Amino acid sequence: MDTLERFAEAKLAALSEQQLRRTLHETAPCGPVRVKRNGRPLISFCSNDYLNLSQHPAVKRAAVEATERWGAGAGSSRLVTGNHPLFAELERRLARLKGTDDACVFGSGYLANLGIVPTLVGAGDLIVADELSHACLRAGAALSRSHVEIFRHNDLDHVEDLLATHRASHERALLLTDGVFSMDGDLAPVAALAEIAAAHDTWLMTDDAHGSAWSAAGAARVFAAAPRPRCRCRWARCRRRSAAMAAISARRRR
Ligand SMILES: Cc1ncc(COP(=O)(O)O)c(C=O)c1O
Questions:
Q1: Which atom of ligand 1 is least distant from the CA of 239?
Q2: How far apart (Å, rounded) are the C-alpha atoms in residues 129 and 138?
Q3: Are 66 and 160 within one domain?
Q4: What is the best residue among 108, 116, 134 to mutate for testing ligand 1's pocket, by most ligand atoms within 8 Å of CB?
């Protein structure tokens, strides 16, 4: 057995011992919210396709027509092959839905956070993040090489303390939170966070992956309604509600 195999076996054994070893279960969709796993019909409560748009006849028809016209697959990244006209149209329509000037589509929610966070902050900057923020916000924070401070879930006093202590020694600062928390379904106090962020010259970014299901604009609505002056940069993100869209980021003009 070579070192790679030995390593793999030891790692899998350790994961099994801690009951952390994951396996994939073949699960076939059978129409709206119903699936079949190991021959058992089940109702799925874990999909992100809340509105069942993946099954909407107009969505399916548009996907078939686009495939017939343009073929399947992107070929390469749009920076390399050029921007496909469908991206421009999709981003225009998403910006309209979100009430923003523009939007940028990413391949997935995870990729959006990996891309956006290090674009905004880097070494020498500060990130203050809710302890229950999705793992990909934390991964984006780690990738950015910023100094990261974690605040107790939705605890505004703790956010205030951390910014009062750390903000002055960093050039830029970014406050990160989910808009609707993915595991518990509770909401971040976005308006209050925006006040605190603005008072400390800190940008606020919300992961709105689950926000768009209950409001088309998601957290962007809170940003739009909040009194000025606001934080300097306002981002909202939404994730797919159909099979077609992965994730967007959008910013409202000041
Ligand atoms: C709040 C939040 N952000 C990001 C993600 C990652 O999104 P994706 O599965 O599209 O990569 C998830 C996934 O469930 C999520 O709940």
A1: 10
A2: 8
A3: no
A4: 134
Question: For 232-246, what is each residue's pLDDT tens digit?
Answer: 444 444 443 333 334
Query: What is the 124 CA–ligand 1 centroid distance (Å)?
Result: 27
Task: Report the alpha-carbon distance of residue 14 to residue 159 in Å, rounded.
Answer: 37
CATH number for 145:
3.40.640.10
Same domain for 128 and 232, yes or no, is yes
Protein residue with least CA distance to atom 7, ligand 1:
109
Residue-range definition of the domain harbouring residue 64: 30-71
Q: Whose CA is closest to atom 16 on ligand 1? A: 182
33-73 pLDDT, tens digit per residue, is: 899 999 999 999 888 787 788 889 999 999 999 999 999 98
Do 105 and 47 share a structural domain?
no
Contact 192, 185 (CB under 8 A): no
Amino acid at position 146, single letter: S
Residue 18 domain flag: no
What residue type is assigned to position 170 of the chain?
H
User: Which tokens is 180 given?
Assistant: 């609707």
Same domain, 67 and 193: no
55 and 163 both lie in a single domain: no
Confirm if 198 and 229 have CB atoms less than 8 A apart. yes
**Distance from the alpha carbon of residue 157 to the mean position of ligand 1, in angstroms:** 27
Residues 34 and 128 in one domain: no
239 CA distance to ligand 1 middle (Å): 7
